């Protein structure tokens, strides 16, 4: 059985409790054991890299404590997966470039806030197999991203709010490696209700985390 650790906190607007519990239940349905912590102290356990197959940050903004950050990066370098969604993973710890180097991206804007936009699947990969392109009403994340990411889905900005980004194609879902660890990220999933309203978001997220757990 695979084991996951969710550590959650930070800004409440992304519903860290509701979203993490929803994802935990879906992972458990697929045979994974999930532990949830409301403290970064969970990252300081001895043998972190041996206890968990994947770690899931759900912690928008905030500060990653230095010792917790070192422990997290060491575990992923040693082969523990890292997976997450939206601001809980890639608008976390804005001042921590070591963390951003690991995740492969950082949120910088969502022009217009919640708007209508389209997600286009761009790769043949088990994480997105059979999903197909889809439309949604949510925050369209504009991100600074690592060019080494393996991109699975993208969105295109139309410039209605910020004309200078008209036509910009932005990664939405990607995977990558960090040392021996697998990294998965999806910018979708602003709140728990969106995982329910758009089942594609839930399926991509769960598949991606399972992939990160190897």
Explain what you see.
- The termini are close together.
- The protein is an alpha/beta fold and 214 residues long.
- It is globular.
- Strand 10 and strand 11 form a beta hairpin.
- It is built from seven helices and eleven strands.
- The relative contact order is 0.19.
- The chain has a nine-stranded mixed beta sheet, sandwiched between helices. It has a two-stranded antiparallel sheet with strand order 5-8.
- 29% of the residues lie in helices and 34% in strands.
- The chain has one domain: Rossmann fold (3-Layer(aba) Sandwich), CATH 3.40.50.
Topology:
Elements: E1 2-10, H1 16-29, E2 32-37, H2 48-51, E3 54-60, H3 66-77, E4 81-85, H4 86-90, H5 97-103, E5 105-109, E6 114-121, E7 134-139, E8 142-145, E9 150-156, E10 169-178, E11 181-186, H6 192-197, H7 199-212
Parallel strand pairs: 1-2, 1-3, 3-4, 4-11
Antiparallel strand pairs: 5-8, 6-7, 6-9, 9-10, 10-11
What can be said about this structure in brief?
With about 210 residues, the protein is an alpha/beta fold. It has one domain (about 1-210): Class I glutamine amidotransferase (GATase) domain (Rossmann fold), CATH 3.40.50. About 30% of the residues lie in helices and about 35% in strands.
Key terms:
214 residues; 9-stranded mixed beta sheet; two-stranded antiparallel ribbon; globular
Q: Beta-strand level of the residues, as a percent range?
A: 25-35%
Could you name the CATH homologous superfamily?
Answer: Class I glutamine amidotransferase (GATase) domain
Let me know the average pLDDT.
98
- CATH C-level class: Alpha Beta
- Could you name the ranges where pLDDT drops below 50 across 5 or more consecutive residues? none
Radius of gyration, taken over Cα atoms and rounded to an integer in Å: 16 Å
- What strand line-up does the widest sheet have? 2-1-3-4-11-10-9-6-7
Classify the oligomer. single chain
SSE order, as H and E? Answer: EHEHEHEHHEEEEEEEHH
CATH architecture: 3-Layer(aba) Sandwich
Based on helices, strands and strand pairing, what is the structural class?
Answer: alpha/beta
Q: Label the overall shape.
A: globular
Number of domains: 1
Query: How does the major sheet shape up?
Result: 9 strands, mixed
CATH topology: Rossmann fold
- Helix content range: 25-40%
| N/C terminus separation | 11 Å
- What is the number of helices? 7
């Amino acid at each position: 059985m695979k084991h996951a650790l969710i550590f959650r906190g930070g800004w409440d607007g992304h519903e860290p409790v509701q979203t993490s519990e929803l994802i935990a239940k879906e992972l458990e349905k697929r045979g994974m054991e999930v532990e949830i912590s409301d403290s970064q102290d969970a990252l300081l356990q001895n043998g972190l890299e041996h206890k968990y197959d994947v770690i899931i940050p759900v912690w928008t903004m905030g500060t990653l404590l230095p010792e917790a950050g070192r422990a997290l990066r060491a575990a992923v370098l040693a082969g523990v997966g890292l997976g997450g969604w939206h601001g809980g993973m890639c608008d976390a710890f804005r001042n921590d470039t070591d963390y951003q180097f690991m995740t492969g991206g950082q949120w910088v804007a969502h022009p217009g806030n919640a708007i209508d936009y389209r997600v286009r699947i761009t790769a043949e990969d088990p994480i997105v197999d059979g999903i197909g392109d889809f439309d949604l009403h949510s925050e369209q994340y504009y991100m600074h991203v690592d060019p080494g990411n393996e991109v699975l889905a993208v969105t295109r900005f139309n410039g209605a709010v910020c004309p200078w980004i008209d036509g910009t194609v932005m990664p939405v879902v990607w995977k990558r490696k960090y040392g021996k660890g697998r990294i998965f990220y999806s910018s979708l999933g602003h709140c728990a209700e969106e995982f329910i309203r758009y089942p594609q978001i839930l399926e991509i997220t769960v598949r991606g985390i399972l992939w990160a757990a190897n």
